[in-house]
Amino acid sequence: MRERWFGASGRKVPEIVLEGTVNLEGALVLDDVSDVRAIHDAHHAGTPVVVRCATAEEVHAALSLGPVACALVRDEALLSLDLAEMTYG
Which of 3, 14, 28, 34 could form an SS bridge with 42, CB 3.0 to 4.6 Å? Predict the structure, then answer.
């Protein structure tokens, strides 16, 4: 399981997490990656950025952005995505 830094909190979280399994207190939780400015501002403030994702493509898009701490999913099947394969083929 790959992990990412959870903002400036000093802790790491799985890059893909099932909703309700990780404490997201203090995080900016977004429904998509369209608000690039909010993501950028939160990152520079040390605030963790979490993006809700419903598809493999949404997970890939969210985790392609360095400031995103994790992709939040409801479908357990998305936990086993091979992001390297999706990125590099």
Answer: 28
Domain count, the chain: 1
What tokens were used for 54?
Answer: 């419903």
CA atoms of 74 and 78, how far apart (whole Å): 8
Q: How many of the other CB atoms lie within 10 Å of CB of 63?
A: 23
**Dist CA 59 CA 72 (whole Å):** 8
pLDDT of residue 1: 77
30: containing domain:
3-88
Q: Rounded distance, CA 32 to CA 78, Å? A: 16
Q: Looking at the chain, list the stretches that DSSP marks H as alpha helix, in order from N- to C-terminal side.
A: 36-45, 56-63, 83-88
